[in-house]
Amino acid sequence: xxWGMANRLGQLIQPDGHCLFLPIDHGYFLGPTRNLEQPGxxxxxxxxxxxxVFATRGVVRSSIEPAGSKPIILRVSGGTSMVxxxxxxxxxxxxxEDAVRLxxxxxxxxxxxxxxxxxxxxxxxxxxxxxxxxxxxPVMAVTAVGRELEQRESRYLALCCxxxxxxxxxxxxxxxxxxxxxxxxxxxxxxxxxxxxxQADTELEVLEFVHDGMQNGAIGINLGRNVWxxxxxxxxxxxxxxxxxxxxxxxxxxxVFDAVKAGDGRPAPVPA
Length: 272
Ligand code: 5RP
What we know:
By secondary structure, the chain is α/β, with parallel strands linked by helices. The chain is about 40% helix and about 15% strand. Bound molecules: ribulose-5-phosphate.
């Protein structure tokens, strides 16, 4: 692997082999999502605990301080909205030249496997990988399910992840599933990162699935709504960090959550 590509991946995947990405790209198809109306304000207290931020160029330029910024994963697919005909009908919205100008650590693109736009989104991925290879920029593929949340089962997810890896993605972001997540990871020759999905009923549910996913081979998480839509975003991200980077149990992570929420002055785990 070329030095630039390896360096960028090294900014994202920490020396322990794990990663905690903070996605705030939702506005690109959802508009001003709850608690993300002002992205800069939302992420300010969370940034010390994130290894990278996943965002569009509009939010990067308008809402993130360039000096001392966390590594950026640039969302470069889009062109659809929640109120449009089909979320799967995405194109590439941002050139690799602009990604270079923004000095990003990676670019991210969704693929919609099984949809009417499967071929289009996969060819977009292939083209993006070609461009990324030219400049040493890794591609993170996002296995999107649009509104079909019930598609989050292992056979489908394994198919999606493998296809993304075959087309050249360096990292694949997919959903955790209760049965067979280990097979999803085992069938994917590049690292798998878990997405979060809509806000869960309880924080404990999130800690449990993240812990299970890490035990079953994921290298980390890319969780948005379950962090910044939580009533307690900082306790939540710190509890998640405890699982991802400290190999913490669910019980320990819950203790971190409770302690930070209670504001007992417990020192923050020092982000790498
Ligand atoms: C949207 C995305 C988001 O980055 C992804 O869904 C993660 O956010 P959340 O945890 O809120 O689902 O790729 O397509």
